[in-house]
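Please, is this right?
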Amino acid sequence: MWRRNFTTATATRALKEKKWDALVIGAGHNGLTAAAYLAKAGLSVAVLERRHVIGGAAVTEELIPGFKFSRCSYLQSLLRPSVIKELELKRHGLKLLKRNPSSFTPCLDGRYLLLGPDKNLNHSEISKFSIRDADAYPRYENQLENFSKFMDPLLDSPPPESLQGVSSLKDRFKDNIQKSAFWARCLRRALSIGQTDMVDFMNLLLSPASKVLNNWFETDVLKATLATDAVIGTTGSVHTPGSGYVLLHHVMGETDGDRGIWSYVEGGMGSVSCAIGNAAREAGAHIITSAEVSEVIINGSGEVNGVLLADDTEVLSSVVLSNATPYRTFMELVPNNVLPEDFIRAVKYSDYSSATTKINIAVDKLPQFQCCKMSHPDAGPQHMGTIHIGSENMEEIHLACEDAINGLPSRRPVIEMTIPSVLDKTISPPGKHVINLFVQYTPYSPSDGSWGDPSYRVIYKDLVLCNQ
């Protein structure tokens, strides 16, 4: 299934012999998507990937013989339906595996909470803790779904970006028209949902997740389970203003038309990149691996002429798209003294901080949970979705965050465990499983040690596993 593209003398020669309509730096899924659309429009496109495999953060690799891991990203939902349809990704190998139930939270007191797309299951499970919350939960889901529908057209619209540098009157006029159209669409959408819902929507966007959830529910484990969606992947606390928005972010996506459903991908997350790459190749794009870009070539007039590879090969194009981070692109690949100082300052001080560690594990049997009293070797509902550990109330999440802010890995980490092999039989040997642990909170530069020290990593690994 996995196709490797090696930079050969033929590929290098092909890169040098023409001026391309567009070059894409990096074969992550976003870069591949851009390449596919440009190639479908009839442009000549080359994608230049530093590694030997495409995918970026959406990549599958066999780290242990027989076990294929989604090394970074591990669930799918936010890939836009229009992209799946227009690039015919299912025809190119994309197969989504829905999770039901989608969430399981074991409690230290012997109880547990299951949640998912089944409304009857949700009511029954939440009722074990609070009838009031069980009745409120459908209203909460309905409000978030309505807000996500409000956002749909905006997500698929080009953003109203600001023009950089001196522009002609014609360009400024066109830019103002585009911005006016964008904000007019926003206004029409705002008027359509009414004043009360708009106030609630703004409160959701600006409030801490803890405030939003406390207004809706009284059950600690329910609030904590939902709150993990508001902080996952960040250094933020449940009390951080704006974290309420991320609650909405997690219901914006869909799987095969079912809104808010996060899915596994058969073959791991690299299958997403593989399918997009196949669509791009079919449209005529050239994807070259082991081709590291060292510099964007800018001429004396400030115009892009192409890129320089690490082996000093020049590849020519007047259009270069970068799938690298803004910092990598503008601070390291673009030559100095080319871009405006205020732009460089904004990029330089962008906040990339995260406090997440991904741990990939191969096991010979499924983990069992004492609270379930279902100790059999086969997968049960508790194994299907995201397993929340270390988050039985929001204050535990907040304290875990404060540890990291103070420079220390969380004493009781917040862990999201997924076992994709219960649904995907292609990524592990029969009877054995792949486990992903998405762990918070860990400082990038801890004050009590270094991630470069193997013994420190072992201590951290033991800390995580002992908390399960």
